[in-house]
Amino acid sequence: MILKFFLHLSKEEQRRRFLERIERPEKNWNFSLGDIRERGFWGEYQKAYEQAIRATAAPHAPWFVVPADNNWFARLVVSAAVVQALEALELRYPQVTEAQRAELAEARKALMAE
Known about the structure:
The protein is mostly helical. The protein has a single domain, classed as Rossmann fold (3-Layer(aba) Sandwich), CATH 3.40.50.300. The chain has helices at residues 11-23, 33-39, 42-56, 71-88, 98-113, and strands at 4-8, 63-67. The chain has a two-stranded parallel ribbon with strand order 1-2.
């Protein structure tokens, strides 16, 4: 099973997060001027992401484009998709045969005798 997630951050939320990284000394390490230069290519990145997602989406390996401005919401969407995919597998414990039950009884008897 393959699930692919694209966490889409809006340009305004990216701006807000960059400003927070600049304004809070404990977050300064997580900022680079290169981020600002790359931000100038926002439109091109959006087109590239769309092309990549369209080119690599498949029924057996879907993409989930997740709005990520709110971390709690993004986590909720990703968690729900994972749970839904796992439930669709309809996983079950293997059935134990009568012969295996007899072996278990013998093993239990041997262990209890120790």
